[in-house]
Amino acid sequence: MKKLLFSTSALALLASGTAVADDTPVYDYVSVNYLSANYDDDDFLGVDYEPTGFQIEGSKLITENFYIIGSYDRLGEDYNIGGQRVDVDVDTWRAGVGFLFPLSRTSHLFVEPAWVRFEGESDNFTTEEDGYGVKAGINQVISNTFHVKGYANYVDVDDADDTTFGVEGRVLFTENLHGIAGIEGNGDGTVFKLGASFAF
């Protein structure tokens, strides 16, 4: 949590000196983010799982109230168990659509149903599972250089479901270059993100 607060504060301070005019939420972008996660007592290994990795995500507005989304996450960590190295990697694919419902010019409700795929790999063990997810929340312009998105994210894969809650800040350094800082999680784990977003 301290890492996220520090990152968000730093981004906000940097943004305070810029003068980018954008008073509507952003939906046309490609982002590259660094990820750091912490999952308590991982079911597979029986130990805390603290992987790091990256995320590539994008969004494209098609009509005034409809857009498409896609993302790819990779998280991984190496363990030393009984003198043996164990490498655990998890890939998550997400593709879907988004529907936005303006409350005002600066505030939108959104709903994003999507197909979700998990691919896990650890030495000789692999698993691939498909399911679906729904993300819903509010996309809010706080100022002409700072936007905030708050949401709930429900995922159901292979008859196992999970709900997480997240908040993401977007700092507009220029018209096309934005900074991203966010956190998503629940009582079982937390994922932090920090990265750059290129709006078009």
UniProtKB/TrEMBL annotation:
Source domain of life? Bacteria
Extent of the signal sequence: 1-21
Keywords on record: Signal
Question: Which parts of the sequence belong to the Outer membrane protein beta-barrel domain?
Answer: 9-167
Q: Does the keyword Amino-acid biosynthesis apply?
A: no
Q: SUPFAM superfamilies given for it?
A: OMPA-like (SSF56925)
Q: Name one Pfam family in it.
A: OMP_b-brl
**What protein name does the entry list?**
Outer membrane protein beta-barrel domain-containing protein
Please give the organism: Pseudidiomarina atlantica
